[in-house]
Amino acid sequence: MNFLNYSVKRFLQVIPVLFGISIGIFSLIHLIPGDPADTILGQRADAARSAQIHHLLGIDRPLVSQYFSFLNHIFHGSLGNSFFTQQPVTKLIVGRLSVTFFLLIGGLLFSLIISLPLAMWAASKEGGTRDQVVRVLPIIGLGMPQVWTGLQLILLFGLKLKFFPVSGFGTTFWQHLRSSVLPCLAIALSLSPILIRSLRTSMLNIMESDFVLTASAKGLKRWRILIIHVVRNAVIASVTVLGVNIAYLVGATVVVERVFALPGTGSMMIDAIGSRDFPVVQGVTLFFAIAVVIVNFATDVVHAALDPRVVIK
Amino acid sequence: MKKRSYGMWVGIAILGLLTLAALIAPWLTGYDPTSQDLVNALGKPSVHHLLGTDDLGRDVLTRILYGARVDLLVGFLAVLFPFIFGTALGLIAGWFGGWFDALLMRIVDITIAFPFYVLAIAFSLVFGAGPKSIVITITLVGWVAYCRIVRASVLVVKELDYVHAAQLSGLPTRRILSRHIFPNVISQAITFSMSDIVLSILAIVTLSFLGLGVSAPTAEWGAMIQEGQAYILQEWWVPFIPGFMVVIVAYSLSLIGDGIVKRFVK
Amino acid sequence: MSTPFLVVDNLSVEIETSRGLLKVLRNVSCSVEAGSSVGIVGESGSGKSMTLKAILDLLPSTAKYTSGEVYLEGQPLLAKSPSERRALLSEKIGIIFQDSMTALNPVLTVGYQIMEAPRFRMGWSKEKARERAIELMGLVGITDAEKRLSAYPHQLSGGLRQRIAIAIALAGDPKMIFCDEPTTALDVTIQAQVLRLLLDLQAKENLGVVFVTHDLAVVNEICDRLLVMYAGRFIESGPVQATFQNPQHPYTYSLLKSAPDPETPVSRLFSILGEPPDLTKPLQGCPFSPRCFASQSDCVASEPSIIDTKQSVAACFHSASFRDQLHQIEGAR
Fold first, then answer.
1. Residue closest to B220 by CA, chosen among B66, B24, B74, B76
2. Does B251 touch chain A (CB under 8 A)?
3. For C7-34, how does the pLDDT look when each residue is reduced to its tens digit (9 = 90+)?
4. What CATH number did the domain enclosing B154 receive?
């Protein structure tokens, strides 16, 4: 009952944020200094086309009515049509989702596989050599631009060792997997420094806590103490840390898609900049923002399910 | 066995040397960062070109130094506005609380929902590509971190006894804030700003790589990585070195940040 | 003469800290008979908690044993492998900590944590362990035991949690229970209840108790014997009542004097000036001498030590005469 209670309350908190996001996205086009039509059309601007754009964007109507029609469109699942291809933006996004999904999930998994063991390893002896090594890694890792890391991975594993393809996504599921390895690794190398720091602190707190001592004193086997007492608390801490960094993960994915020439939502957005395809840019931004909010919500709910202490304030 | 903390000085030395080199670049290398020399394109590191040449025959070392100017400058400047705004807002929200705080926190929640790079890319369409739009994006998004850090600190510090004592003795709020609260919350903000500078530099480098930052032929590390992409197999150093410079700068900044923490945070 | 239940022989422990190597325990020796109750008192940082953890092999990863041995029912523990050591210790000794909130795993029910040792170390069935858990909860004075089994630690009050902690410690059927300042975080009425419970258990189950605290009043209530700790070493040992009436060490004397007695009005409060020594640095002579009102030249030259016996002994060169010196000083005011 407590859990349902929490989920509902948490969901209610999400709603104003979603509205806020919609306002933010809505104001994107109005932030453009000068006539948005000029920026959008660039060199192709002329009176007739500008008027078309104005009408298309509905700028000739009062602000509030524009906003409501914007909201209306969203509720009906429409994000407008691409200037470039005339196709509905929603359809374009959905078409590219699977790639981005692969990268997000893969990147997350790889990050966890790298960060969690390292954090636990470091925490097992605070201040020891292994701890010092693990503390230096994030400093170097944070300084590595994802695009650069991606390129070095391409060089080493793609071109020189030829283990993995260096671009494209392939057609079969197996090819998808192979094509995802290097990009996900690049994402993971970018996210892990952040995760390692937080997780290490959490692990230290857990491993040095009295309840682990109590468990030891009871004479329980080490694996039991590790799994039942340490890991469960560690997972809870990890969920929190992950939730907080979802936006960062999305950002890294968008950039990495470009480096590896993967046909995902992120590279679609970057291409849209070149072709000044405003609806696509706006649509993808909205999509990602909503995705982050929903994932944060889901993380909080999972956290509440695992941790009996959680209550809404 | 005590360890002397020389780390901070190493960081300052590295960063200082790099900044100095960037400033006196024209006298240091003698090459122009944009003049092409196609005959000598993609040359290996040699006596004439210590770091080799890129695909248009331009001296890599010179471009690195000129690139440092852009990246370091943008990196530092871009952090200034979020620092000031975020700290100010955090101070007010933490101290006064109430509806202002609640409203501000809602705005924070909304802002952090947008992944930074997604926004940066979107803004490059709205404001036009280039360092200007990157700085605007960083300012619009970056203030949040400072706001939260400072606000959290303020919430803790304002419950401390000596603050209660100052209030009881009738000190005006402005004075309490500036003399008692501010000095104690600022240290965390400063520490964070070190890693924030790293993030800003990463942002301009990455966005330039994507073609949304500085425009050719300006020398800039991200652009250099992008230009060198195609030659990565044979002339690997062309895309490697600019990225490596970022790693060095990031490492120095974190050494400095750690040093500040050890020295000034009790 | 039968072997004492627990013998600590010349035990020393060092901890690596950022400030240097901290010698937390310096040649600590004592012996505890089965079923007896011993109090260990001292200031924070004197090494009291570390002594308990050192005996039970619960030291942090940065700690190291540098000398000595611990004998449990005659068996040398440090000579054994970690798993053998753990097996022996968990069978015989239980422990409760100061903060029951952190001593209990927040994500497991209280019932599970009580049943853990019987089920997974002693191999009992779930039903049998459950019955025992209910029994134990009754023993520690918890009503509504069946309902409480499925509660989580954060749902219970401090006093209740501490009782659960005691139940957990008892579940393993130990002969002795170590208490690391378990009542410090509780308010006075609850503290009294917990202490009464411990006294009960001592009497009914012949449970040995080693009670670490900085509160002399508590020791007075529960313990038969007193060990006073200072700067990582025992500096006085003796029966509680006798030591309270007639302390043999200037430090013990000062401790007793500085606890104000509401029935005896004084014009000034007595306090011990100065601070305990920095254990990362080598010590010269008796570690208490800088703060001792009775110190003389031989106190700085070498460090006195005690051999723990059932009599009253103190690690002081001048235990016989320090009271005279005090009177001299007080008379001179």
1. B66
2. yes
3. 999 999 999 887 888 999 998 988 898 8
4. 1.10.3720.10
In degrees, rounded to 5, the angle at the alpha carbon of residue C89 between the alpha carbons of residues C83 and C94 is: 135
Query: Is the Cβ pair B1, C19 closer than 8 Å?
Result: no
| C23 bridge partner residues | C14
Q: Tens of pLDDT along C143-196?
A: 888 888 999 998 998 889 999 999 999 998 899 999 999 888 888 888 888 888
Residue range of the domain that includes C316: 233-260+270-332
Tokens for A264, please give them.
């995902």
Q: What residues of C are in contact with residue B1 (Cβ under 8 Å)?
A: 20-21
Query: Cβ contact (<8 Å) for A285 and B122?
Result: yes
CA distance C160 to chain A (A): 16
User: How many domains are contained in chain C?
Assistant: 2
> Nearest chain A Cα to B107, which residue?
A20
* Residue C265 lies inside a defined structural domain of this protein: no
The verdict on residue C113 lying in a domain is: yes
Is the N-terminal amide bond of B217 cis, ω within 30° of 0? yes
A 52-111 residues inside an 8 A Cβ radius of B = none
In terms of domains, do C129 and C251 share one? no
ipTM computed for the complex = 0.86
Q: What is the CATH number of the domain that holds C134?
A: 3.40.50.300
User: What are the CA-CA distances from residue B2 to residues B63, B189, C15, C19, C66 (Å)?
Assistant: 42, 28, 14, 6, 21
pTM score, two decimals? 0.81
Q: Do C105 and A306 touch (CB under 8 A)?
A: no
In angstroms, what CA-CA distances link C331 with C251, C258, C324, C328?
20, 19, 10, 5
Q: Based on the domain organization, do C212 and C246 belong to the same domain? A: no
A147 CB within 8 Å of a chain B CB:
yes
The Cα–Cα gap between A17 and C215 comes to 53
Range of the domain at B227: 6-264
